[in-house]
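Whiteboard transcription, Tuesday session. T.W. wrote the C-alpha cells on the left side:
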C-alpha cells in the first residue's frame, strides 16, 4: 500500500531525552538506522547544527518542531528549516490554509536555494495529550475528536501538505480518506510483547500500524532505552520485513 519499499525507511528513531553527545554515542550502535526525529528538546539544546551533523552521519532527518504561527512566520521558519536539509518537517494543521500553503511553498524554495530536494511537510491534527473532555472543558469545542482529526487532515491535504502525523487510534480512518501517496506517520508503536507503554495513551505493534495504513512509524524509548539498542531496532525492522516485504 505504501510507496516506501525499504523497511528501514519506515522506521524513524525519536531522539528524545538525550543531549547531542548521548545521541551520537547511541548512533554508533545503530549503523543500519536511516531516519531520526529531532524534537523541540534536542533542537533547543543542540541548535540547528545537530541537523547537519546527523546528515553528515548519513541520516535523514524529521524535524519535529510543530510550527504554528501566522503565515509569514510559518513560511520563514519552514524556508530556514528546509535549508538545513531536514527531509520531513512538522507543522500544525490548525495554523490554517494560508499558513500551510505559504509554509509549503517557502520550504520548497528554501531547499532549492541550497540545491536540496524539497522536504515533505507533515501536519499535526490534534495532539495525543488532548481528549474529548479537555477539549470541551478548556477550549469549549464539542466536536467529536475523531471528526476534528479527519477534518484537519483534509484541510492539510487540500493545503499542499504531504501527510499527517496521527495516533494509532486514527490511522485506519485517515487511510480510508487519503491515498497511499499521503504520508501517515504514526508514533505510539510498541512490540506485542512489550510491557512498557510509557506515557503513550494507545499503542499498536509495527505490523498493525502498517497494515492499518501508516506509511512510517516513529519509535523512541523501545529502542533508545533498550539495553541493546541494535537488537531492539532489528526486531522492529524484522517485523516489518516479515509482514510486508517478502
Ligand atoms: O514513546 P516513544 O518514545 O516511542 O515516543 C515516540 C514519539 O511519540 C515521541 O517523540 C513523541 O513525538 C510521540 N508521543 C506522543 N504521545 C505521547 C508520547 C510520545 O505522540 N503520549
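and on the right, the sequence the group agreed on:
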Amino acid at each position: 500500500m505504501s510507496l516506501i519499499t525499504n523497511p528501514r525507511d519506515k522506521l524513524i528513531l525519536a531522539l528524545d531525552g538525550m543531549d547531542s553527545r548521548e545521541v551520537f554515542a547511541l548512533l554508533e550502535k545503530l549503523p543500519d538506522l536511516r531516519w531520526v526525529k529531532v524534537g523541540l528538546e534536542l533542537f533547543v539544546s543542540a541548535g540547528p547544527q545537530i541537523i547537519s551533523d546527523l546528515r553528515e552521519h548519513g541520516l535523514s532527518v524529521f524535524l519535529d518542531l510543530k510550527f504554528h504561527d501566522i503565515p509569514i512566520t510559518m513560511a520563514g521558519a519552514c524556508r530556514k528549516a528546509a535549508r538545513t536539509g531536514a527531509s520531513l518537517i512538522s507543522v500544525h494543521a490548525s495554523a490554517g490554509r494560508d499558513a500551510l500553503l505559504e509554509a509549503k511553498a517557502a520550504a520548497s524554495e528554501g531547499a532549492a536555494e541550497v540545491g536540496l530536494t524539497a522536504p515533505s511537510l507533515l501536519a499535526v491534527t490534534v495532539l495525543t495529550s488532548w481528549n474529548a473532555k479537555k477539549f470541551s472543558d478548556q477550549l469549549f469545542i464539542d466536536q467529536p475528536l475523531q471528526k476534528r482529526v479527519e477534518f484537519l487532515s483534509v484541510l492539510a491535504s487540500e493545503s499542499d501538505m504531504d501527510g499527517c502525523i496521527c495516533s494509532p487510534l486514527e490511522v485506519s480512518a485517515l487511510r480510508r480518506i487519503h491515498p497511499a501517496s499521503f504520508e501517515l506517520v504514526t508514533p505510539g508503536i510498541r512490540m506485542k510483547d512489550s510491557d512498557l507503554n510509557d506515557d503513550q495513551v494507545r499503542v499498536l505493534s509495527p505490523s498493525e500500524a502498517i497494515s492499518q495504513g501508516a506509511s512510517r512509524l516513529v519509535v523512541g524509548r523501545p529502542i533508545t532505552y533498550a539495553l541493546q539498542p541494535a537488537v531492539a531496532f532489528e526486531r522492529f525492522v524484522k517485523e516489518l520485513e516479515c509482514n510486508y516485504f517478502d
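Someone added at the bottom: The longest strand covers residues 60-67.
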